[in-house]
Specification:
Length: about 210
């Protein structure tokens, strides 16, 4: 699969194009899945150009996400996010590794994740109420682990973390998001996430 770069990335010009893309894509997914996007983020999404083969599936998914951002009303997207992930009692989707792997919350996968985060020296923000196996939190951790600024060029921890805590369920979550009747903007997020995670799995398999 072809890779794609977000042009003029805020991550810094010292990173390679591929590194820039991976850090930015994980950070973007972490933001979009942690909370509904602001009007500023929706505008930013529309303004970004990609450097890539115009026929690639990743480029197509990004274009669909941009179009969805252009059509989106911030209040409607906020309502959509609430219905999908929060709801009354619970949302339509439960974006947690434990749920996808065991059918229950706060199970063994979360314990294993917490042990790995502790080994990496990554502490949970005490103001965050969501368990650490929320898909947004996992993307935020991956954004740190894949950045050479943080890892000195060692992709081993990022690969191990991805394979232990994302590889076993990212596809099901991404497809659930795409196929949800509630999801409109977030269906495009799900498609981009699926192709990006697929690219990551392929990249790690070649190491």
């Amino acid at each position: 699969m072809e890779t794609v770069q977000i042009q003029d990335s805020p991550a810094g010009n010292e990173l390679s194009p591929l590194d820039l893309f991976r850090v930015d894509a994980y950070a973007l997914l972490g933001s979009l899945l942690a909370q509904a996007p602001t009007e500023e983020l929706l505008s930013w999404l529309q303004s970004i150009e990609l450097i890539d083969d115009p026929q690639s599936s990743m480029r197509e998914a990004w274009s669909v996400l941009q179009m969805a951002a252009g059509r989106a009303d911030p209040d409607q997207v906020s309502d959509e996010y609430h219905q999908l992930f929060i709801g009354i009692g619970r949302g339509e989707l439960l974006p947690y590794g434990s749920w996808y792997l065991t059918g229950f919350l706060m199970e063994k996968p979360l314990v294993e994740l917490r042990n790995d985060l502790d080994a990496l020296g990554i502490e949970r923000d005490p103001e965050v109420r969501e368990p650490e196996d929320h898909i947004a939190a996992l993307c935020q951790v991956m954004a740190m682990l894949v950045s050479p600024d943080q890892n000195g060029g060692d992709q081993g921890p990022a690969q191990q973390f991805f394979e232990r805590h994302l590889a076993t369920w990212w596809r099901r979550f991404s497809q659930d998001l795409q196929h949800s009747q509630t999801a409109h903007f977030y269906s495009a997020v799900g498609r981009f996430a699926e192709l990006f995670f697929e690219q990551e799995a392929l990249l790690f398999s070649r190491r």
